[in-house]
Amino acid sequence: MNQAPTRKQKRNASVRNAGVLLLLAASLLHSAAPLASTEELKGVKGEISRQQRSLAQQQKELDGLQKRLKSDELAISNATKKLSQTQSTLRPHKRILPSTRSSMMLW
Q1: Can you give the pLDDT at residue 37?
Q2: How far apart are CA 64 and CA 56, in angstroms?
Q3: Chain-centre distance of CA 82, in angstroms?
């Protein structure tokens, strides 16, 4: 009753086993793909978060530099006004000075 499997039966069993292994491998790859995509997505989200933190820091630095620039421009403007006022005040004295010098030389 128990006969040894024929070559054809052995080949069919091997093909069947190979088919099962192939389906199992395909199933594993298919289920691993979403895991890889999930990990990749986590990596991308992490990079986006890092970039957002970097941009926020750069914006903070930019705001500070703009505030400092505005303060420096205001200081320059005030110094320019004061210089102009000083020059206006000195202008009449400059006219008097040469005549005073010449009169002092006469003495």
Answers
A1: 81
A2: 12
A3: 42
